[in-house]
């Protein structure tokens, strides 16, 4: 990929409603209306983080869906940098939750649910309380306890296109 950043924003936000036909036809990708769709490399990650913040900042809980090694932690690091976090940002795989202070957004909770077995273990670990804390929560591996996610969760999808290129897109569910 060249070093050109490609970000596409939907212009039909006002038209989105429950009366739309079902776009979840098997075999189509993505299976819903995208609000933001960006193809980028590491040199553009900060621009994408800035654009994503503008799209999703009204939502306190963000769920990052991606395969292992797709760049969830790297992207959250870029987002935290944009938000003015000066603490070291790292994967909370073993701690489950890392807390950072942001100049722009206050307390940020960076969660990695990879090691959680199920929702019951997440509740025992205090995850439910943190989701209800009114702090920004950035969650890696949200499918491990998906039933705990609030209805207005901002879902972010990261796709590995090649070794140097990622695709990040969001859907209209929480808009």
Detailed description of the structure:
The protein has 175 residues and is of the alpha/beta class. The chain has one domain (42-171): Rossmann fold, CATH 3.40.50.300. It has helices at 45-56, 72-82, 119-124, 127-131, and strands at residues 6-9, 34-40, 61-65, 97-102, 106-112, 136-140, 154-162, 165-171. Helix 1 crosses helix 2. The model is unreliable at 10-32 (pLDDT under 50).
Q: Quote the CATH topology.
A: Rossmann fold
Could you say which structural class the secondary elements and strand pairing correspond to? alpha/beta
Q: How confident is the prediction overall: mean pLDDT?
A: 83
Estimated radius of gyration = 16 Å
CATH homologous superfamily designation = P-loop containing nucleotide triphosphate hydrolases
How would you spell out the order of helices and strands? Answer: EEHEHEEHHEEE
Give the strand tally. 8
> Mind telling me which CATH architecture this is?
3-Layer(aba) Sandwich
The residue fraction in helices comes out at 10-25%
Largest sheet: 8 strands, mixed
The number of domains is 1
CATH class term: Alpha Beta
**Major β-sheet strand ordering:** 1-2-8-7-3-6-5-4
Number of helices: 4
In short:
By secondary structure, the chain is α/β, with parallel strands linked by helices. The chain has 4 helices and 8 strands; from the N terminus they run ββαβαββααβββ. The two termini are 31 Å apart.
Q: How is this fold's topology laid out?
A:
Blueprint: E1 6-9, E2 34-40, H1 45-56, E3 61-65, H2 72-82, E4 97-102, E5 106-112, H3 119-124, H4 127-131, E6 136-140, E7 154-162, E8 165-171
């Amino acid at each position: 990929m060249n070093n050109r950043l490609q970000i596409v924003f939907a212009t039909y936000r006002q038209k989105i409603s429950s009366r739309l036909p079902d776009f979840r036809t098997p075999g189509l990708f993505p299976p819903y209306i995208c609000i933001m769709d960006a193809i980028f490399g590491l040199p553009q990650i900060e621009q994408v983080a800035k654009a994503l913040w503008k799209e999703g900042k009204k939502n306190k809980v963000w769920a990052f869906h991606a395969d292992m090694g797709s760049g969830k932690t790297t992207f959250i690091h870029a987002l935290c940098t944009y938000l003015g976090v000066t603490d070291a940002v790292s994967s909370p795989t073993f701690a489950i939750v890392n807390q950072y202070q942001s100049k722009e957004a206050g307390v940020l909770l960076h969660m990695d649910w990879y090691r959680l077995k199920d929702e019951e273990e997440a509740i025992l670990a205090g995850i439910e309380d943190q989701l209800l804390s009114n702090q920004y929560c950035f969650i890696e591996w949200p499918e491990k306890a998906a039933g705990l996610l609030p209805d207005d969760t901002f879902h972010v999808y990261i796709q590995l296109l090649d070794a140097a290129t990622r695709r990040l897109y969001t859907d209209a569910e929480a808009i």
